[in-house]
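Handout, page 2. Input:
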Amino acid sequence: MRGHGVSVLAVAVMALTGCSASSPTPEELAVDVLPAVEKYLAEIDAEGQVRAVLVLHDGEPVVEHYVESAAEDYWDTRSVTKSVVSTLIGIAIDEGHLEGVHQTLGELLPSRAAEMDAETAAVTLEQVLTHTGGFAAQGAGGDYYLTDDWVGQILADRNEAGSADGTAEYSNAGAHLVSAVLVEATGVPVLEYAREKLFEPLGIPTEPAFEPAPDFTDEAAAAALYEEYWEAGFAWPMDPQGLHEGACCLKLRTQDLAAIGQLYLDKGEWGDEQVVPEEWVEQATTSHVDINGAGSVGYGYLWWVTDVADDPGFMAYGMGGQVIHVIPALDLVVAVSTEFDERDPGRMSTTFGQESATGLAQIAIAPHLAE
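Output:
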């Protein structure tokens, strides 16, 4: 790891002579925001897990804060992966590969139709995207990743669950099916589609790509592969059938998270290109359900819906504190990466959670952007 380092963009221009009275520059904002971010992290992140915080305002970088890391470092984004996969669904609908979110799994996964009972086949894509499809809740069994056919096991577990009652239960199993849906619809691997339709337009590098397919039934082999994964740059693990994980573990740089956040803030536009349909950005980041156990936080299509000091926002969140937080009214994007390392149980025991991520924006950043 590198030594402690903090970079504030163009802080050398901190002399306040000639400042605009109505709209502070990024350099001026950095003077207030950086100390507030550092103070907040010192109080909240006692274990020192946060490795990078990027703050964009009006599309301009205000703060880049790195701790024992650098801009080129890649991090396990955990469930931010879900929000990326959701974005690809929106693009696929716009391109006509999918008819819409009301299609059923029976229609979307024809190669697996024989493995579904009537209840499972009737689950809609919207139910999968909102965790209301009746799939095994996270931490409540359904260890599909210990089998040699993840999708088959997920469908078998769903068959046993019976009718879905509309309750939202956060499910990695359901999210992985979204990856299968994308492959059936587009005819290409998820990474190939993502590279062409999302990553390349945003300038997110994906080569070389590390695409491991870990065998979790062999603990020693899985541990050795995780060492390679941890040291790799861009990575997107796959299941035993070669299907990229839909729920977890895409590795990206913090600046890549910020770029995705800016894309959503700009309603799917990047430069002169409409990368993601504006309608999808709105639908995906509008609350459709309340996730069980998440308090008053709403949920869209694999995006969390937040409220920061009465300003509505939305967030991609991964366990341990991987964050893309967007607050449109403040023209604000906050990206956070943490060292969530499964090799260190002590580090995993205390994580930078969703409340901490929301507090970073609400306590340390938003007050300095208010007019």
